[in-house]
Amino acid sequence: MKIIIFIFCFLLSFHIQSQDTRPIRDDIGYCWKPNQFNHLINFLESKTNDLPNVQKMVAGISPHDDYLYAARAYYSLFKNIRVKEVVIFGVTHSTVRKKIGDPQNKLIFDDFLYWSGPTKKIPVSALREFLKKNMPGEYIMTSNLAHKLEHSIEATLPFLQYFNPEIKITPIMVTGMPFAQMERISDEISKFIIAYIRQNRLQLGRDIFFLISSDANHYGQDFKNTSFGQDARAHELATNQDKKIAQAYLSGNISRLTIKDLARTLWGKTYRDFDSTLWCGKYSIPFGMLTVLKILKKIKEENTLRGRILYHSDTYSNGVLPIKNTGLGITAPFSLKHWVGFFSAGFFIN
Q1: Sequence-ordered list of residues with C-beta below 8 angstroms from that of 293, at least 6 positions apart, any chain
Q2: Nearest in space to 169 (alpha carbons), one of 182, 180, 154
Q3: Short-list 159, 220, 191, 216, CA closest to 31
Q4: Residue 5 forms beta bridges with which residues?
Q5: Residue 313 near residue 343 (C-beta atoms within 8 A)
Q6: Calpha distance 300→35 (Å, rounded)
Q7: Alpha carbon distance 280, 286 (integer Å)
Q8: Phi and psi for 158 in degrees, rounded to 5?
Q9: Which of 28, 121, 199, 268 has a CA between 20 and 30 Å from the CA of residue 15?
Q10: 174-195 burial, b if ≥16 CB within 10 A, otherwise e?
Q11: pLDDT in tens, the chain (350 residues)
Q12: Of 328, 309, 95, residue with least CA distance to 216
């Protein structure tokens, strides 16, 4: 009997320990082995000397496409980040929405103690539990399943950990919601993030950073998005449209009105209009930027950010990186009938 009890306790302990870390979702498009990721970084360092060096960022936008497509965009952002913890606003993709009942008007948290990283587990910041404890219940939900299925946050972690080995994260998935609801929820979350920052005497951009995950337009017949056609001219027109949106709303001075105009541009007539420009960060970007602005206004007495597009491309224009021995693959094809745009951006206080 004692042996049986011991085995049961051991198995129970193993199960509990295995559940404390959010498992890896994508081991094809992203790289989780240290030596392979180092090989990728060495390649990027040798091939991307023309990427900008920037300082004093407080927030940024990262892609979550496959590294073989978008590694230059990741690298241009993360090589400039040196902080202790990061709040990450992720997407809730349609495949995930279908599996979890398509919740609306909420932020989705998890219960994991750690997330996976290439070199070691990445701890979740105490900020997450502080937010879950204090935010109104109608604005939040907790779902480990949602976070297990969603890849937009995990995509950022290998790059984030490489440049910030002791990083802590607060992972948050943003669901669909109209702009008025974004205003209400961002009021609440910014209030409690400010309290946490002040309690822990953190400085924006040095101790804590705000990261938003998003890819740009998803174009082609697979996405039911062929408004310009499906030839080289269509690709040129659609990518130019992406660039104009990014430059108009995510570079230069950014205010609440800028963010509201961006949301209208990405959403079309209503926030649920999926026939508009298919950026998967159509909710995470406006919500994350509103939250950052409100935090700045209280802490720095600033209500304006300056944005800078660091890198912009798409899966068709450059194809896959000519690099081997990384263990990386691609999770989707590229052609004039199927391509995805992506970019990285940094945001600064004047």
Answers
A1: 254, 255, 256, 259, 303, 304, 305
A2: 154
A3: 159
A4: none
A5: yes
A6: 41
A7: 12
A8: -60, -45
A9: 28
A10: bbbbebebbeebbebbbebbbe
A11: 444 444 444 344 434 445 899 999 999 999 999 999 999 999 999 987 766 777 789 999 999 999 999 999 999 999 999 999 999 999 999 999 999 999 999 999 999 999 999 999 999 999 999 999 999 999 999 999 999 999 999 999 999 999 999 999 999 999 999 999 999 999 999 999 999 999 999 999 999 999 999 999 999 999 999 999 999 999 999 999 999 999 999 999 999 999 999 999 999 765 554 444 689 999 999 999 999 999 999 998 777 789 999 999 999 999 999 999 899 999 999 999 999 999 999 999 87
A12: 309
- Output the six-digit token pair for 69: 């497509």
75 within 8 A of 159, measured Cβ to Cβ: yes
Cα(56)–Cα(327) distance, integer angstroms: 34
How many C-beta atoms surround the C-beta of residue 247 within 10 A? 13
The contacts of residue 122 (CB under 8 Å, 6+ apart) are 114, 115, 116, 157, 160, 161, 167, 168, 169
Residue whose token pair is 């969603």: 150
State both tokens at 199.
Answer: 């309690």
Task: Kindly tell me the burial class for residue 348, based on how many C-beta atoms sit within 10 Å of its own C-beta (0-12, 13-18, 19 or more).
Answer: middle
Per the CB < 8 A criterion, the answer to whether 59 and 308 are in contact is no
> What is the distance between the alpha carbons of residues 150 and 143, in angstroms, rounded to a whole number?
11
Would you tell me how many other CB atoms lie within 10 Å of the CB of residue 94? 11
Pairing of strands 107-109, 140-142: parallel
Lookup: tokens for 165: 């080995």
Task: For residue 37, give Cα distances in angstroms to 76, 124, 350.
Answer: 16, 22, 34
Q: How far apart are the first and last CA of the chain?
A: 69
